[in-house]
Amino acid sequence: MSAAVRVVVVDDQALVRGAFRLLVDSAPDLEVVGEGANGEEAVALVRELEPDVVLMDIRMPVMDGLEATSAIAGLGVRTRVLVLTTFDLDDYVFGALHAGASGFLLKDTPPAQLLDGIRVVSRGESLLAPSVTRQLIAEFVRRDPPAGMARWEATGSPTGPAGLTGLTGLTERETEVLVLVARGLSNQEIGQELFVTPATAKTHVSRLLMKLGARDRTQLVILAYESGLVEPHG
To answer: Cα–Cα distance between 21 and 74 in angstroms, integer?
Structure first.
């Protein structure tokens, strides 16, 4: 039996944290190993515990979820950040994409979907809530593509002339896979679309991550949008 996915819950409201802890701990393959009331505590917990996933609220005192996500991404650990947000497409969420968040969920997401989302993000296999993430990214690119490209540089991700040159170095199949990743498809769905096995699809995605220097699939999606390979709302 594999080890349980280790989760840290971060929210400034004690009742919300308690509710998420009860929900996560109700799943036999998930375990809450820590709680934080603000972003500063989240970063400290990640340093100490190196959990698999941080369930991160955005708007908190002391340090908000955006700053915390960026700090966690800079620690060089394998911890993934799953952002909890409302569906108002606020600038905090746009920034969180570039700060290193691996996925997004709405706060009113059904419990079973939240638990599955934690599992998905912990594996790094596919985008969480792709319809939500695609809309967030499309809105971000529509609002501020030049600044978005600059923020890639700030996080050490492929961007600008170098990043776009990297896209020209992709094979035809890798480009096809990147488009499908940007549409929110999982490895299994990519395999079905291209008539290959999920394992082969996973290999293509891994090569894309390596070639483009992206941290995870979320960054691949942003790069696909910002490079113009995939059109917002298209």
So the answer is: 26
Coil vs helix vs strand at 13? coil
Asked whether the whole model's pTM tops 0.70, one would answer no
75: its two tokens: 């620690």
Q: What angle do CA 221, 227, 231 make, to 5 degrees?
A: 70
Name the DSSP class of 94: H
Task: Delineate the domains of the chain, giving CATH numbers in brackets.
Answer: 5-134 (3.40.50.2300), 158-226 (1.10.10.10)
Q: Residue-wise pLDDT tens for the chain (234 aa)?
A: 678 999 999 999 999 999 999 999 999 999 999 999 999 999 999 999 999 999 999 889 899 888 899 899 889 898 999 988 765 555 666 666 677 788 777 788 889 988 988 998 888 755 545 555 556 666 655 655 544 444 444 444 443 333 444 577 889 999 999 999 887 788 888 999 999 998 999 899 989 988 888 877 777 877 887 777 876 554
Query: What is the distance between the alpha carbons of residues 189 and 184, in angstroms, rounded to a whole number?
Result: 9
